[in-house]
Amino acid sequence: MEILDGFSFKEIVTSFMVLFAVIDIIGSVPIIVSLQQKFGKIEAGKAAITAGAIMIVFLFVGNKILKLIGVDVNSFAIAGAFVIFVIALEMILGIEINKTTEAKAASIVPIAFPLVAGAGTLTTALSLRAEFHDINIICGIILNTIFVYLVLKSAKWLEQKIGDATLMILQKVFGIILLAISIKLFTANFAQLVLNYVNF
């Protein structure tokens, strides 16, 4: 099959790690536990599948939307780099730039969207298309969906075992990784954008 031609284990691992860092489901455990206490039982399967579906649909439809409004993937990837940069700063410095609002239902809103498949995640998924093959990004999304499901199912247990201090350390480590990724995305796509205009 043509879609399998670009299959790469390295790209799958990279896509998984990038999306894993942006989603930051481990760092969201305290939020998930709080929502569980407030709204009752969280449907882990429903939330994970919805989030995964949103990411995969946007991966393909998002590009068509960009073409419709006359924006190329490289420009969007640069915008995505700025979004990832802001998310990384939030994680490293422990500040809140993007304000979130409470919702009446927990499984779909706000867990599936925007906690898991939020603006940062969707932007990152589409930005990855500028460098990676679709099949590898889809595999990365599916692996993250499975991981999100497992975390949602065992949120209380994870909070007890990991502890606030470890969660904070993990958050800052992934924040630094995201910062490096945002810089790489920006430089690579900015260079490509300049080349496109020069060739034009």
TrEMBL record:
This is UPF0056 membrane protein. One of its GO terms (cellular component) is plasma membrane. The chain crosses the membrane at residues 12-35, 47-69, 75-95, 107-129, 135-152, 173-195. Belongs to the UPF0056 (MarC) family. NCBIfam families: NAAT family transporter. The keyword Transmembrane helix applies. It is found in: Cell membrane. It is a multi-pass membrane protein. Coiled coil: none annotated. Keywords: Cell membrane, Membrane, Transmembrane, Transmembrane helix. The keyword Metal-binding does not apply. It comes from the Bacteria. It holds the Pfam family MarC. Its main location: membrane. InterPro entries: Multi_antbiot-R_MarC (IPR002771).
